[in-house]
Amino acid sequence: MPMSRCGEHTMSSQDDRRSTLHFRLVPFLIGTGVSVILGVGTLMLFNPFENESTQTDSTTEVRESDIPRLVKPADDTASNKSNTGSGESPNLASIFELPTYFESSVALDSVLRNADLSTLVDLIDESHDLQGVERRQSTQTQIFRKFATLDPIRALSHAQSFPRVQYDSFASQIYRDWSEIDLDAALTYAEQHVPTLSWEGKRAVLEQIFRTAWDLSDDAKLQIAAQLNVNPYVADYVLQEIEKDKPLENPTEAWKEVLSVDNFWEDEQDQLVQIALAVIEKDGYAKFADLANAIPKRRVRTRLISLVLSDQMETDEISTVFEQAVLLFHETARPVLFECAERWSYMDPLLALDAMSTVPSDQLRKRLEELVIETWLSVEPLEVVRQLELLPIEYREDALTQGIWSMSGRHPKEATEYLDKVPDPQTRWNIMWSLLQSWAYQDIEEAFTWFLDNPEIEIPLGNSRATFLSSLLSRVTPEIAPSLIEIALKYPVDESGSGWEGNIVGALTYRDFKEAKELLPQVREGPGRLHVYVMIGQAIFRQDQSIDSVIEFTEEIPEEDHIEFYGKFLPRLSPQVAYEHVDDLPTPRAQARAALELLQRAARSSNPPYTNEQIEHLESFLTDKERKVLEQDSPSPQQ
Out of 107-111, 203-207, 599-603, which region has the weakest mean confidence (pLDDT)? Predict the structure, then answer.
């Protein structure tokens, strides 16, 4: 959405809101959460709607006779008709599945604008299933505020079903809007209802009623507190707390008075922030800019602008705040530009990115664009990769790589669709390695199937598919191994004649070699099965530190595999440990094969592990066949 269109939407929505609810000044800039102190108390929540069946008749009577409304309340017949009609009720879950927070907010506003009582009840029920505590509670608050404009008593009744802390908060918001519409009616009902609330609930409701009655004297406000049976000490405390938020008749003069003090500290800063909010409310951003830009001390000026504009983001459209910051405050507003850009990125990153293009400074614009993209990548990497063409061209390559990296952890299956777009083979390999580990944690069977279905995966030199698979098989457990083996057996063996089920059982030996032994019969004949024998032999030796236990294990495997087994098993031990156990092997052929392997490895080592005497001892085990192989492996003497 272009900035200008967003601005038009902003002004119209604000004018509608202010004309409907008669916003006066600062009270509603403070935010609904800050004004309600809902600490953990020890009082039990008294249920004001405890006798539902008894109270229904009297409540209905009060509603019809005493409480004016903006619209006629819906009766049960109308409600049932609405629920069973051909049109479907709006669904909160579908609203919050929209691509961006901004779109969700617009959709929710639209639903609430046209909602009747039956729809509001349905929305409250659905709101319990929304994910995210803050988002869920803010949505519920919006629903109850709309409910308050139609039938505040019924709204309070539904709010009572929530836990006490939330109930106190919703009740205060309902009284806030009810008092704006008809203070007398709100007080008439509150006189019976408020005394039943907890201490925190009484305080919260009283504060909101006081804020809607700024023009009343303090004595009149205290009489309201007495009418509601609120402790006078609590009433005095609330009055003192909201005094600093009281609308100013001449905010410009108050601004000058605060700045004239000799020692400017935090209290003065807080006062300036409140005055600044009043200035914006009364005279607009330009007037505040004139006052703020005239502050001589840069630190005070910058801090104040940041605090005020950050506060305005809670009540104004974020696009408006950003636009004003760019136009009016220049370099002074850099901190708030970054804060605004980051917040905006969570709500509507594409709109935020488009807005960054209005920043005149090339260097600042680039940093802000990078911040938006990085924030978007951290939250929705899949969306970034899918909409890559919407990013400025200079950011696309890095955003693609970073996005796939991030997707490999959270959306591994989807990330595989974009792997071929990563140009660097080593980077692609690193991403795939991370991807398989994360995928194995989420759905190891699905990840393993993908691996088997994609034998053409490009593997960098020095690596292998088996090495690649090890990142996934590190998650193998005795419980999951049988199902993975079942999958592996559906695929043909590789070029070496090994089936992938051998890798599964081999990986399992690190967790439970006894379970691995039980699964051995399911491994197909060939090099893969011999590999598993060796892995289990290693696990046995690690546990017992005894070659006798390994020799005992070989009695369970075919005799024709014994020579190959010892030739592969012994070199996997440390060189000295392997040397010490050559003499213990059960047959001369096993000794000759193991000795050959150890000598070959020693010859390839840049730091030979054996002394001349040890080499001579190993050579004593060789037959003519092994000696010939060793001679062929030896480098030719230089001419």
Answer: 107-111
Distance of CA 328 to the CA centre of its chain: 34
Neighbours of 514 (CB within 10 A): 13
Contact 354, 45 (CB under 8 A): no
Count of alpha carbons within 13 angstroms of residue 284, beta-carbon side: 5
Residue 603 confidence (pLDDT) above 70:
yes
Mean pLDDT of 432-460: 89
Share of the chain above pLDDT 70, in %: 83
User: Is 6 within 8 Å of 319 (Cβ atoms)?
Assistant: yes
Helix axes 285-293, 318-328, angle to 10 degrees: 40
Least confident interval from 88-92, 328-332, 371-375, 432-436: 88-92
Element of type H or E holding 435: helix 425-453
Q: How far apart are CA 201 and CA 385, in angstroms?
A: 47
CA-based diameter of the chain, in Å? 117
pLDDT of residue 537: 92
* H helix intervals, 454-557: 465-473, 481-488, 501-519, 527-544, 547-554
CB 197 within 8 A of CB 207: no
Measured in degrees and rounded to the nearest 5, phi and psi for residue 489 equal -70, -15
